[in-house]
Specification:
With 153 residues, this protein is α+β, with helices and mostly antiparallel strands. The chain contains 7 helices and 3 strands; from the N terminus they run H-H-E-E-H-H-H-H-E-H. It has one domain. The chain has helices at 6-9, 17-22, 66-69, 92-97, 107-110, 115-118, 145-151; strands at 32-36, 43-49, 128-129.
Length: 153
């Protein structure tokens, strides 16, 4: 695979920090609060975003110290990705770990940092601030992420 992009030739563990960080498409879905059913283990997404999420850029406003400011913030690492069944099915970390291709709207593929927003995959314009939400169960959503992603191919 001469001249193939790094995400097609390297495992997540082989990537350097810049490559790893560039896999994030900036959708903000991982920054939404999620609820897990204790019996089934099923994950329900809410439209309530972490207080550190910038709702316009869909990026963390304090990325370098997020785990200090938000003690339950999950910091992804290559050896843990397979355990994160809560990652959206469009997540590049999940896709690469499963040996699948990135979607055409992913910024690494499209060359456009805003393509994830244009494709409607991000939480831009869809998320609620933590301070405005009372009961997370009232904010469970059923965004069909895969349908949106498939339409963008």
């Amino acid at each position: 695979m001469k001249n193939a992009p790094f995400w097609q030739t390297k495992t997540l563990a082989e990537m350097d920090r810049d490559e790893w960080e560039s896999l994030c498409d900036g959708c903000g879905l991982c920054c939404l609060h999620k609820l897990e059913d204790e019996d089934s283990g099923e994950i329900a997404y809410t439209n309530v975003a972490c207080r550190l999420l910038d709702h316009e850029s869909c990026r963390c406003m304090n990325y370098s110290i997020r785990e200090i400011l938000i003690p339950d913030c999950v910091v992804l690492s290559p050896d843990q990705v397979a355990e994160f069944n809560w990652l959206p099915p469009t997540c590049a970390y999940r896709l690469v770990s499963e040996g699948r291709e990135l979607f055409p709207w992913h910024p690494l593929v499209s060359g456009d940092r805003n393509s994830v927003h244009t494709a409607g995959i991000s939480v831009r314009g869809k998320a609620v601030h933590e301070r405005d939400a009372l009961d997370l169960e009232d904010h469970i959503i059923d965004w069909n992420i895969l349908d949106s992603a498939d339409e963008s191919k």
